[in-house]
Please model this.
Amino acid sequence: VKLVESGGGPVQAGGSLRLSCTASGADFETIVMGWGRQTPGRLRELVATIDSTGVIDYPWYVKGRFTLSSDGAKTTVHLQMDNLRSEDTGVYFCYYRVGRAGAGVWEFWGQGTQVTVSS
Model:
């Protein structure tokens, strides 16, 4: 499986960034796709996901500021991040979970892209 990420970089607080990720090479169906992040002092966490039925989920601390969109096949996702805060600084990773009933589930993470929010 190959995950190609783009976007990220430096931005001032209150600004916006857009991350994109495209997955290829999976032989099984998408279960979940989205973005996670690793911020200083915290474990890696998912910040936006879409499942195979199209349900999108966010943790409370990004809800209303982050917007995830996807293509119909759920192999490309875009994360629009608005009103960024200094605590959003970290490395953002594309997340991809695939599988099939009776066969198993596999998770993949992208290589990560740095987001730096300055106040």
About this structure: The chain has a mean pLDDT of 96. DSSP finds no helices and eleven strands in the chain.
